[in-house]
Known about the structure:
The chain is of the alpha/beta class. Helices cover 42% and strands 18% of the residues. The protein contains eleven helices and ten strands. Helix 3 (70-82) runs parallel beside helix 4 (103-111). The longest helix has 17 residues, at 273-289.
Amino acid sequence: MTGTDGTAAGILVLAGTPIGDIADAPPRLAAELAGADVIAAEDTRRLRRLTQGLDVQPTGRVVSYFEGNESARTPELVEALVGGARVLLVTDAGMPSVSDPGYRLVAAAVEKDIKVTAVPGPSAVLTALALSGLPVDRFCFEGFLPRKAGERLSRLREVEGERRTLVFFEAPHRLDDTLAAMAEVFGAERRAAVCRELTKTYEEVKRGPLGELAVWAAEGVRGEITVVVEGAPERTEVLGADELVRRVRVREEAGERRKEAIAAVAADAGVPKREVFDAVVAAKNAERATP
């Protein structure tokens, strides 16, 4: 493989870095840090702490590569790769491009037919999943949810019926609102685990129903957060819209508020709350339209 000037093309190395304990650094990481021609780092100060902790002295050029300059700096790094450089990409923690900078550079390198490889390393997604106590045979990663409440609810409703275990990242100051929104959309009894400060001194895994976790988080939680949520339950029976409406009305007649009745019927039937809500609204509109 050669670059545009006839020289051998370089290689892009994505390096996983410790998510907490520096002793978890993969053995190859030190060698890659020492031998790379260019190191693209999400935070050059954190890179310095990492190299000091590993007792490594980089010989290559160090450049910053973070969300704010990712688009502008990618062409420069691709040019170095085309010219034959070995470019090492490291983020603050975990694997580059997984909710971190890296995707644009990987895509650009692939487009130029430049080899891309990786130094496998720690992953907050897989670590939290393994510690959660929830099913791990099938899962999906949703990254960070939108910051705005309305957009966050919309995104959660998109995966309301997802049967696979769900994994999310979240900022500590938004955790209580996110868990409350999850309890509203998924149901307060849906099991979940909040994994905090994984592999660090104050590591904590808090497990329980979403409703209880939302109350716990309201007191304030610190650190890096990964949330794992149980997938939607399997439907035990298929109910038509008329039956869903009937069950809601039975609960309302017994004194339940409509919102709670819809949530309970949805949980019992194993269907999204939106499906029950839409059925109730449609029935109400049909009644109004009847002379």
